[in-house]
Amino acid sequence: MSIIKKQIEAYRENFLENLGTPEGTFQNNLETQYLRFSRLIKFFRLEQENTIHDIGCGICDMYKYFKSINLKNFIYSGTEIVPEMVNYGKEKYKDIKIFNQDILKIDDSIKYDYLVLSGVFNLPGKTDRKEWKEFCFKMIDKMFELCNKAISFNFLTTNGTFQAPELFYLDPTEVFNYCLKKHSRFVVLDNNYPLYEFTITVYNAKEMEKEFDSKPFKKYFKNNNE
């Protein structure tokens, strides 16, 4: 069975049992869910209009969060592999696009300004841990290929006080170093909030160069091949 099919199996039953609640997508409550979302966009530059694509969007709770904080000038869309979640989201939010697709199979010519991913890496289901880790890093790679500006995602941290056997944890520095070496030197590791997790934001170097385009900063982008 493929990893995608295993993931659908892992999420579908719980979703149907807890329809329309944070628990239906394995969130503890609304407060911690919204804190998690706030950290994902903390380092995004959202003053101008941007496209934001939500990987593993579930029932589009992140879109609901954006509305709750009156975020302006954004075009939201999402990708989700569980058909029932896609149908639920489309019924609830008729003004957004939700795709039932495997993100790894999306053509690289499709671009979004920002891509976000929350909680997707936490539950490997029946997938072997080594295989799951490789899958997670492939997802990160794909997200960066599809972004114009930046990506943001979270993992459960090995620095917590306990580890549940059914969940997946990583050392924050390992993920930080992976992104630093593979994708860009413009990486933020946010480990400064109460949840047993961390958030990584990775900026496209060319986008960073656009932002700091005055003469004093030119020398910092001479070898801009990230």
Please explain how this structure is put together.
With 226 residues, the chain is of the alpha/beta class. The protein has a single domain, classed as Vaccinia Virus protein VP39 (Rossmann fold, 3-Layer(aba) Sandwich). Helices cover 35% and strands 21% of the residues. It has 7 helices and 8 strands, in the order ααβαβαββαββαββα. The chain has helices at 3-17, 30-40, 61-68, 83-92, 129-146, 172-182, 205-211; strands spanning 50-55, 74-80, 97-100, 112-117, 147-157, 169-170, 187-190, 197-203. Strands 1, 2, 3, 4, 5, 6, 7 and 8 form an 8-stranded mixed β-sheet that branches. Strand 1 (50-55), helix 3 (61-68) and strand 2 (74-80) form a beta-alpha-beta unit. It is globular and about 60 Å long.
Q: What is the strand and helix layout of this fold?
A:
Elements lengths: L2 H15 L12 H11 L9 E6 L5 H8 L5 E7 L2 H10 L4 E4 L11 E6 L11 H18 E11 L11 E2 L1 H11 L4 E4 L6 E7 L1 H7 L15
Parallel strand pairs: 1-2, 1-4, 2-3, 4-5, 5-6
Antiparallel strand pairs: 5-8, 7-8
